[in-house]
Amino acid sequence: MQPSRRGFLKTSALAGAVAGSTVTATSKLMAAEETKKLRLAAIGVGGSRGRYNRGGSIANDAAKYATMVAVCDVDDLHTEEFSQKHGGNLNKYRDYREMLEKEKPDVVTIGTPDHWHVPIAIACLQSGADVYCEKPLTLTIDEGKQIRKVVEETGRVFQVGTQQRSSGDLFQKAIAMVQSGYVGDNVNAYIAIGGAPGDGPFETTEAPDDLDWNLWVGPAAKADYCEERRKYFRWFFEYSGGKMTDWGAHHIDIAQWALAPGEDGPTTIKGTGEFPKTVPADFNWNSFFNGEASLPNGYNTATSFNIELTFDSGSKMVVTNHYKREAENIDFPNGILFEGDKGRIFVNRGKLTGAPVDNLTEEDNAKLDAKIAELRKGKAAMSHMANFFACIEDGGQPISDVWSHHRTMTSCHLCNIALMLGRELKWDPKAERFVDDEQANGLMSRKSREGFSAETHAAS
What is the C-alpha to C-alpha distance for residues 3 and 416, in angstroms, rounded to an integer? Predict the structure, then answer.
């Protein structure tokens, strides 16, 4: 980390903030004129023509802390709309490589479709930029190994956009309660993340003239344009991993953080699920990702599922599209139920409930506040983006670092691979390989279209 890159924030920006406080540091960070010395660029910003707008949202948030100088998107309409929101004077690009070469930004936000996250992130890190990348970070397990290596080699600050990790009043408190024994021992997590649509096949059309569809597709297999592929890419394995890597990147992350903070990952994965009607029974996914088999032009990620992941400690995560236990009147479409031998707690983005929560004393809450401070790696309570910029200032690790997110995404990908193969799988989390299963190991990576792999596209 260059000393001059660390000095842009005033030391007083976080002074006075205490563990357990609300976002008091954010306004101080925003007010510091030094923050504007950092040159910020946004890659993938969404807009009125596309459905995916998180890229624009995170870029706008980052612009509170640094000076936005450039925007890059394969859709000219999106770059123009975003530029107008920032005074109309931003330098606009289609190709992020050209932007990195000409602008040399200090900080980059990445809000592209998921299949572009790792290739672009690697190029940004190797250019010397600190990076905030939307989740899910990876398309495959091997991509996680790849991006982890580059973060370690470059030493840049890298934050993944799993904002639930910054929610101290709910998710962090739930994690603290589990790790502090408030639900007892032998804790399991039951997770619901919602199902996915199974529509298709769809008609293809001509891409808009001001959209570079070839560059949008990038490392994925060549495909004709259709609105569904672009707007709802999350339901195509070519570009994402369905609900498993969408909401799973949030809830599986929280559950694994709580249950297995010292473990590298699960060792056994088993379960069942359903795919859209466009996917034949016993479809060969290895051949599909190798470019040797094809599917109709429709959604192809799992529509429903019930998967169990077991850790060496004996703890289990059960991942479902909708969790039900009729005999106990348990029924929820989205959230996490932690259950141990002392009781159970339920958490989602709206609430944290359960008898162990109701029975907390003032002394208990003080202990939990101390535990939450530990989970925050010594940082005060603040927004996810503020945490990123605070880490750029002091060189610390962000709350959603590449190592924890790679572990989370590995579990998400393990779930999808178990669904694809339709059988129980054994995983060696230290070696990061399946045990005696070359077909499963073959699904840890994808064949990139020529000229678009992470290595060649970053270096070209």
Answer: 43
pLDDT digits (tens, 9 = 90+) for 209-248: 999 999 999 999 999 999 999 999 999 999 999 999 999 9
Contacts of 21 (CB under 8 A, 6+ apart): 380, 381
Q: Catalogue all structural domains in the chain, each as residue range(s) with its CATH number.
A: 3-164+378-400 (3.40.50.720), 168-374+404-449 (3.30.360.10)
Count CA atoms within 13 Å of residue 359 on its CB side: 10
List the beta bridge partners of residue 455: none
Long-range contacts of 60-63 (CB under 8 A, 24+ apart): 60/85, 61/383, 61/385, 62/107, 62/109, 62/132, 62/385, 62/388, 62/389
User: Given 3-state DSSP classes, what are the helix, strand and coil percentages for the chain, each rounded to the nearest 5?
Assistant: 40, 15, 40
Q: What is the Cα–Cα distance from 442 to 341, expressed in whole angstroms? A: 39
Closest CA to 248 of 416, 412, 419: 412
Q: Of 11-20, 57-66, 274-283, where does mean pLDDT reach its minimum?
A: 11-20
Question: Per-residue DSSP letters for 28-86?
Answer: HHHH-GGGGGSEEEEE----TTSS--HHHHHHHHHTTTSEEEEEE-SBHHHHHHHHHHT
pLDDT recorded at residue 457: 55
Tell me the C-alpha distance between 453 and 460, whole Å.
Answer: 10
Contact of 65 with 38, CB cutoff 8 Å:
yes
pLDDT in tens, 146-166: 999 999 999 999 999 999 999
Pairing of strands 334-340, 130-133: unpaired
DSSP string, 393-425: HH----TT-HHHHHHHHHHHHHHHHHHHHTS-E
Find where tokens 């070209």 sit: 460
The tens digit of pLDDT for each residue in 20-38 reads: 333 334 444 444 566 578 9
What's the mean pLDDT in 424-429? 98
Entry pTM? 0.91
Structure confidence at residue 458 (pLDDT) = 53
Tokens 């004393």 — which residue?
A: 361
Average pLDDT over residues 163-171: 90
